[in-house]
Amino acid sequence: MRLLLVILSLLLWTAPAQAVTYISDDFEYASQSVLESVWSMSVACVGNTSSLGPTTEFSVSPTHSIYAVQNGGLNTCFMDRAFTGTQHFFYKLQVRFATGYDLDTPCATGGTCSGGGGGTKLIYAKSSKAHVYMFVEPFSHKIRLGVPDSSGTYSRVCNNGNPTPDTECVYEPNVSTKAIIVGTTHCVEMEVIRGSAGGSDGTLRVWIDGTKTLEYFNVPIVSSTQGTALFSDVTYYSQGGYGKRYIDDLLITDIRVPCGGSTVDTTPPATPTGLQIFQWLAAITSSLGVAWQFRRQLIAVSLACVTFTTGILTAFPLYIAKTHYTVKQKTANIVHATLKRLPKE
Nearest to residue 252, comparing CAs of 123, 77, 64? Predict the structure, then answer.
């Protein structure tokens, strides 16, 4: 009987998905031409070492970073790199605005800047149309997220506190306030869950130096005309602001690797309701005098059945998009905790 239970558990168990790294780049490029062999450049950037390129003036690790010289939106250029399409990703990068950088002066006449004000555009996540980008606001120096529609056809409420339909939604920090300090190196993270075409079911999060500053759910990120297009490009801009800015250690993955750590954040989510069956099962079998080892096997088989069922559910993209952790992970956490609480006989 015990052998049969073990075999059944093995048959129903599925291995957890492995983390996917889309891009990991510490920008150790010896020259502009080497950088351009990996990253695509806008016309203004190609061969232009005075605007954007590799440098040893600053680095987090090991010796190089990428600099961008910004002049109020004049001579704007950018670099772009494709990665495997996904609807859920995390960005992490190190950012430093050199001492004396001006985030507050408005965009220069004839310059290209978001909204024409001060501040600076930082980094984009792009699909064929839907975009999400980081922008450092003037004066407050907080990081907000912009969700523009490149086709210009949006006319929807942004779910960001502004009831006016718009073609670009701007999401301000709503969890905590942490400003970017000029002359200081900051670790910046962004999480985006794309959601469904035409739906208001996307998710946005931002962390600065490990502190969550922004979190929005039910975000309309893609229009109904954009189908299943996935995020598959990262773009770094030299646009807006005045001075020199550096970035280093860019990481794009499908699971959070928090600032200051090389391991995945595995903090379990809050226990969902409706899964008390394992506690009930443990109590009933205990009252019936069932041996401890057999109770463990019985609960293990129950877990395998739940894992099998939820494994099917997680095959649906919309379900994946709405949850930070899979139901399988949540179930495993709950059962593990339940087994630990059961008294041994």
Answer: 123
> Which CATH architecture fits 21-253?
Sandwich (2.60)
Does residue 227 or residue 37 have the better pLDDT? Answer: 37
The torsion defined by the Cα of 22, 26, 30 and 36, in degrees rounded to 10, comes to 30
Instruction: Report the distance separating Cα 91 and Cα 3, nearest Å.
Output: 46
Domain ranges of the chain: 2-16+268-341, 21-253
CB 146 within 8 A of CB 117: no
pLDDT of 320 above 50: no
Query: pLDDT tens digits, residue range 171-206?
Result: 999 999 899 999 999 999 999 999 888 788 999 999
Nearest to 134 by CA among 192, 74, 65, 198: 192
Q: How far apart are CA 290 and CA 197, in angstroms?
A: 52
273: pLDDT strictly greater than 70: no
